[in-house]
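INFO  loader      accepted 1 record
INFO  loader      residues=112
INFO  predictor   begin
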Amino acid sequence: EVQLVESGGGLVQAGGSLRLSCAASGFTRDDYTIGWFRQAPGKAREAVACISSSDGSTYYADSVAGRFTISSDNAKNSVFLSMNSLKPEDTAVYYCNTGNIWGRGTQVTVSS
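INFO  predictor   done
INFO  writer      dumping tokens
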């Protein structure tokens, strides 16, 4: 059974940085795509970034491109989201996802 556990969220001032981690376990295949999504209060969940384990290709939402970086450590089955120049509108619960598997999320709050 695939499981995803997020960590690294917290409270930060605008302009600050955070690094989220997603620890994955239970994978039975070598190629997979893991993504970060976020959901702000009263808003739909949206894709933030994703990475392919096979070739390292990445995707970023326009709203975070140039500020966020997704990376992976395949040996540790972990995916990271480095977030810089954070804005109050980045405040949300951030979820790790692969296929139909979701983590429980980690709260990111950016104060103005």
